[in-house]
Amino acid sequence: MHKITMLGTGLIGMFYTMVLHGLRSRDQVQVVYSRSPERAAKFAGEWNIPKWTTNMEEAINDPETDVVVIGLPNNLHEQAAVAAAKAGKAILCTKPLARNAEEALRILQAVEAAGVFHGYLEDLVYTPKTLKAIQSTQKGALGKVLWARSRETHPGPHSDWFWDKEQSGGGAIIDMGCHCIEISRSFIGKQVKPLEVMCWADTQVHPIEAEDSAVGLVRYASGAVGQFEVSWTFRGGMDLRDEVSGTEGTIWLNHWLRTGFDLFTSVGEGGYVAEKAEGTTGWMFPVGDEVGALGYVEMFSDMLNALDQGKKPIEDFYDGYVVNAIMDAAYRSAKSKQWEPVILEVWRGDSEADTSGLLRDYDNQHYLIKEEKMPDGRIKFILKEKVGGKVVQKVV
Ligand SMILES: NC(=O)c1ccc[n+]([C@@H]2O[C@H](COP(=O)([O-])OP(=O)(O)OC[C@H]3O[C@@H](n4cnc5c(N)ncnc54)[C@H](O)[C@@H]3O)[C@@H](O)[C@H]2O)c1
Predict the structure, then answer these.
(1) Which of 123, 165, 259, 356 has the fewest CB neighbours in a 10 Å radius?
(2) Does residue 283 share a domain with residue 149?
(3) Count of the separate structural domains present in the chain
(4) Which of 5, 32, 72 to mutate to test the pocket of ligand 1 (most atoms within 8 A of CB)?
């Protein structure tokens, strides 16, 4: 059993507390921190939390808790993580780990120097669908992964600080690109080095300094490409989709809209529908188990079981650091309009990647490019001559 300090009483503090209290039923949020006494007291009352405080240090250093969960705006992650490391507590931090790689590296170094457990709360790699899809990929169902595309778009976040670049570190890339990048990394292989990024980013709609839309390509040492698509301008709710292609197969994942529960109502039912839903009448896409579908349940199970067993969770602060480094390159590329290198001062994955060719023999003289059955029953083989390289076809 763990007694937990929860930092933050916003959207994520609420989801995390809901899961922690519902999950194993043996972990307890013992103290909650919020800036405002009214909000702290209300949250503590709603979730049956024994103590609340408006003093972050006091919450972190509470003698009864052994785990600190950081659910604060991005600019406060470093301060909270460093204080929790100093207190010798296990630390679980929401995404993104930091506003940039420099900050993320300082956080990583602080927890490693203190020798405390650290988990990166990247929920979207823990959705039951994603876990199963990653497992299938790791077992070779797709062959060699070539392309992992991940999309998160919605009409924009729910609090002021997200829209302020100074507090958030950026716009849609830092907010949602972090999810997409880690999803792609998980399919391509987290041991494979991300090399460079090409990114378009723009502020298409909102009167803000940061980008509200972006598309990026991350090139990996294996030759695979990770593609992220993020936007705070998308209308119609929250679109969460992933596509993975390999030499032998394909996976399509749809996590939010049109997942098999469509509801039409002309009058509504007077309540919350689903995160970022835009309406309460008409055709709607409610979600049966929101915290399950978003991965929070499996994520906290992995985190707390790893902590109990002295193991590393699937996602830790090193992953958060790599994601920040990729996003830094994306921001540089959006400015320079060039491929920009991913700068990783600390790289712990493979130094070499498998870039071997994928040549398939047809016979001694030819490589096979493509085989296709035609409508009239003939089979066409498109071949490349081993000597000379000429492309020819054989029809049988
Ligand atoms: N899927 C996810 O993993 C997910 C989803 C949403 C948010 N998040 C992350 O969680 C963190 C918080 O986001 P949120 O959606 O809960 O935001 P929110 O605005 O709903 O809540 C933020 C909390 O921090 C407090 N806060 C704001 N400014 C503060 C300040 N200057 N000092 C102290 N406390 C302050 C607020 O009072 C509130 O309790 C962010 O890092 C965000 O990226 C993750």
Answers:
(1) 356
(2) yes
(3) 3
(4) 72
Residue-number span of the structural domain to which 205 is assigned: 125-290+317-341
Q: Is 13 in the pocket of ligand 1 (CB under 6 A)?
A: yes
Residues facing 173 on adjacent strands: none
CB 168 near ligand 1, within 6 Å: no
Can you give the pLDDT at residue 357? 67
What is the mean pLDDT of the segment spanning 257-280? Answer: 90
Instruction: Note the pLDDT of residue 176.
Output: 98
CA dihedral 130, 136, 141, 143 (to 10 degrees): 70
- Encoding tokens for residue 320? 């958060």
Dist. CA 13 → ligand 1 center (Å): 7
Give me the count of residues in the chain: 396
pLDDT tens across 313-322, in order?
999 999 999 9
> In this model, does residue 256 exceed pLDDT 70?
yes
Ligand 1: distance of its center to the CA of 214 in Å? 22
> Do 106 and 162 fall within a single domain?
no
Nearest Cα neighbor of 180 from 133, 144, 217 is 217
Which of 71, 104, 122 is at the close of a domain?
122
CB of 313 shorter than 6 A to ligand 1: no
Within this chain, do residues 42 and 99 fall inside the same structural domain, yes or no? yes
Q: 14, 17, 29, 35: which to mutate for ligand 1, most atoms within 8 A of CB?
A: 35
Residue written as tokens 């929101």? 290
Give the rounded percent of residues in the chain with a pLDDT score beyond 70: 99
Q: pLDDT at position 341, please?
A: 98
For residue 9, which amino acid is it? T
Domain final residue pick, 89, 122, 155: 122
Question: Both 139 and 205 in a single domain?
Answer: yes
Is 305 domain-assigned?
A: no
The predicted structure's pLDDT at residue 352: 86
Vertex 228 angle, CA 109 and 143, to 5°? 95
66 domain residue, yes or no? yes
Distance 338 CA to ligand 1 centre (A): 33
